[in-house]
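Example (one chain per record):
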Amino acid sequence: RSWPVCLMSQETMGLRAELPMDGHVGCLRFSTDGHTLATSDGNKYLTLWADKDLAGAWTKLVELETTGKVGCLAYHPTEQRIATGDNGGMVIMWDLAAQQWGHAKLGQMTAGDWVWGVSYSPDGHLLLTGEGNQFSHVGTIRLWDTSSGEQIRALKVETGSVRTLTYSLDGSFFVCGDNGKCITLWGVTAGTVGLTMQMGGA
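Predicted structure:
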């Protein structure tokens, strides 16, 4: 069974376009200008769509095969790259400016578990990834150098498996959320916890 991506008009809330997907929608992100959309499905593909004439006629640019089911993705600040994380514990950086899509894969890093969150630093020099599985009560955050693909630091999240994370606008700290219902603020330089908030609900 397939579920399309539905693009809605903000003014009228009417349907503007439907983008066909092969399976369920894993995640999606618009570029800053709103003219490009990245989506993932349940069959190990990252798809890039473009509204080339800015008239709402979305076309598929390329379909890139990943190593697993993509659960998160993030644009680089220059929007010339995309990072993806999948259920096989792989993090891939893709070059959207590649002359040949077969050479679009810039680097591939191995995390330890299902990667649920990826986030570039504001300057694009660092990449955060968050991982864990649904049965774990401990997660891991990894900090990577985007130029070399080398891991700089690994941080244990004792409150639960990481489900999402993001950098602050100035890049001095980041925030993660986990399946233990906690939101934690971390300092980037020291890699230390600044504040943990327990959330209610499911």
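Caption: The radius of gyration is 17 Å.
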